[in-house]
Amino acid sequence: MKVDVVETTLVAPSEDTPRRELWLSNLDLAVPRTHTPLVYYYPVPATPAPEPAGAVGEGFFAPERLKAALARALVPFYPLAGRLGVGEGGRLQIDCNGEGALFVVARADFAGEELFQDYEPSPETRRMFVPFVPSGEPPCIMAMFQVTFLKGGGVVLGTGIHHVTMDGMGAFHFIQTWTGLARGLDAAEACGSLPFHDRTLLRARSPPTPAFDHPVYSLALLNGCPRPFVTRVYSVAPKLLADLKSHCAPGVSTYCAVTAHLWRCMCVARGLAPASDTRLRVPANIRHRLRPPLPRSYFGNAIVRDLVTTRVEDVLARPLGFVAQAIKDAVDRVDDVYVRSVVDYLEVESEKGSQAARGQLMPESDLWVVSWLGMPMYDADFGWGTPRFVAPAQMFGSGTAYVTQRADMDEGVAVLFGLEPEYLQCFEKVFYRE
């Protein structure tokens, strides 16, 4: 498979934007210091869509039309046109200088079905479809996009946005804005609520007074060794999903039910000792959990982690509903007190010179499951239809999983899971209850 770059350019905001240094919160600084690589696959539409009024450029995924819409989208989302910088005391910040986002046009010598029929995130997939920079450290670019035209039609949009700028909700808010502008919507209609950029709402208290210990942010729990792994996409059909949820109490979410099942399957596949400990890292969106709540359009990292630690024998021998409830309890305990404690804990650790855990080198006993359920990941229509498939281009560690919806909500959900190859066969048999 070969991909040739035919154009590389910087796209600056179409209007003047604030020139300032954007302070980053402790939650921004606790994420992996890298660009998050995603791919959106668009097959050729059966019926060509009409050009929207005022659109620039013609034809399927015309680059000029996308670049013009991107320039307009970078006006409200101006941090994405800046560069990662260093402020007072060596603290990372975003230098909002309007230099622009990277935009690449490429052509591939293969068809989309060859890759997306049995899609696997991998370093090779990222290399083909997402622009790459050697380091996520200052003064790196904040946002990169690549449109790759496939053999026989079809397009892959690859996006690489630096994780310190935003979480999943912020990323999909930006994509919705960009695609809406490309369809000819006005700025207010495409963007909806303007992104909220004031991250000082998540500033630590003075003095910082954490109410709890937060070992999930400790480097001590990332003591795993680099291990070869592969990533597979597992479909959770409605029948299997209904079966899993039938073993759980009312009110237990799809995420908790699927994650409980995934946790069990991981323990079995890896042959973990029944008396040993296993840990699950779970994320929680805090926008609605703070008092007062953050604006829904808060553009930054508004996710905190919690940790569920238990014996392997409890994960395997207890009912699935018990495991799912333990996950639900961990998510539910993330309230205003807990969030402020996390922010203060990270402040104390930084004052001691300690770094927050940002990597994903977990030991074989552990699992990290991220939820994209309920996010508008498929609301990405540039004017030629919605994507057939959206997923990470690459996973960054064994034992890491995403739970996402499918393009067709009636098809259930999908689990992307990175696991050592020697455990795959056993995992798949247990996962599908064979």
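That was protein one. Protein two is written in the same sequence-then-structure order:
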Amino acid sequence: MASPGSSGTTGTNPLAGPDPVIIRDLNILDRVPVVLNHLTSTYYAWKMYFSLVFREYNLQDHIDGSVDSWFMEDDEEWMTIDATLIRWFYTTISKDLFHPVVSAEDDAHAVWTKLNGLFTDNALQRKVFLHGEFFGCQQHDSLVDDYCMRLKKLVDELRDLGEKVSDELLLSTLMAGLNDDFENAASNIRLITAPTFPKVVAYLKLEERRMRMSRTRATHTALIAGTHGGVPPTAPAPQPRPGPGPFQAPPPHGFPYPQQ
């Protein structure tokens, strides 16, 4: 039996729903390569990956609340797919999230709503925390890519809470947190035409590569100089100082030494 509102994905029937066998055998870890965890900034990526899977396999009616699973209990195919989605959710979350949301009576929509609520409830407190982390983010000794991605994850988390961070504010915060090695690079960013976050990240990664190569060349040059031409000459070995001549006893009082 086809589920209400489903578009065709199997056979030639335009009203047919997704094939339960295809959904059941899908390796969700290949499609959602992140684990949802309170300790890491993975919520935005986790939600985005799942949203793509829902769209690709026409599964929105299982998670958007448009279909009540109570009315679908006699539809074996629909219930099979719903159970598969629940298994996907439990497979892609950390152990500390499993116990707060697990319930034998929940359908896929209920589990999806619970998991999203864990990251969007208490929005005001979470916004305050994320704002402090965002504006205090510093590169320190981390690589440019790690630093920039850390900022981007914070922006994504704020967006999930309805707080949009403008590109101008993101770029300003990024430049303010760069370490001293990128002082000149930060000034040059202002010369980029229509700067965007991807453009600036690409430029900083190239600059980081250039500085790394420059340091390597300087070290190599110093080693060559020290090996071939930069070693100070060896001091000559000290020569023995001449000792006193043969001992001569003093002449008797009043008599000079004989002339040689």
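The chain has eleven helices and no strands. Keep this in mind for the problem set.
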